[in-house]
User: Fold this.
Amino acid sequence: MLFLDADDLLHPGAVAAAVEATGDDVSHVQWPMINIDAEGRPTGEVTPVSELASGDLREQFISDGPLQWARAPGCSGAAWPRSYLEQIMPMPAADFSIAADAYLVGLAPLYGGIRALPEAQSTYRRHGGNHSAGGYDAMLQFDAELWARLGRIAADHATRLGIEVDPKRWCKRGWALRLLTAMTEIDAAVGRSVRAYRRGELALERSSGRLVIPFLERNGEFWGLPEDDAHAIAELDRLRSEGARFVVLAWPAFWWAETYAGFLHHLRKGFQCVLENDRLVIFDLRARDEGGKAAGET
Assistant:
């Protein structure tokens, strides 16, 4: 079975390719999608950007919960064999009246392997009216609520299969819930109307209403990673002189603490750390007075 959104296109041979990829040990087949605009013209981009997950993901599922792997949109980028559907249907319709594919994708690792096709089998129309274009905060809230519902259902399926899982651990590691908490913390520490400066894969767009400067940047666009600590510090000084007020380091980029240890030491030595937990480290870049406090503090 596969879905096809009314505004997407399925390539010739897609169904045959999906059927060929299924087998007794496969519960989910997925493929990359070529992005097109409202007029059907290729944009040069592919969804998703990252390489699709493939193989036996059960251990990752047990550790992190559902939907914690690189996947294509299930409404036009995936197919499921009947043998899998017979084990999980009927779908709880009230919980998945929107994003029904999340139910099928999220439970798949419990019942078999994931197989990713290397070639695109469909196109994904991006026209501004997509459900996913509903605004950063609205979509984040929707994703977090959807993930919470799916997490409860997935835990029940695991229990029925005799698989022990830890839903409390899932809640700490679940991307949507973790990101929703992080954004609340960022807004409280930094504010929505100040210039923020960060390096992290939070998909935090300017359309979210937050002023964001990627790092490194040129003309407001991400420009790659620093060559070394000295390069990072120089770019920090430049952006600070141009008005950047905070550094927000999110958990996907915590590897910076090792790769750019000198840069992190520079931040800790020279600026106040206003928040630090397992999701975020935030530094206030405003100049300190002789008492060691950031400007504006009392």
Q: What stands out?
A: Residues 193-200 have pLDDT under 50 and may be disordered.
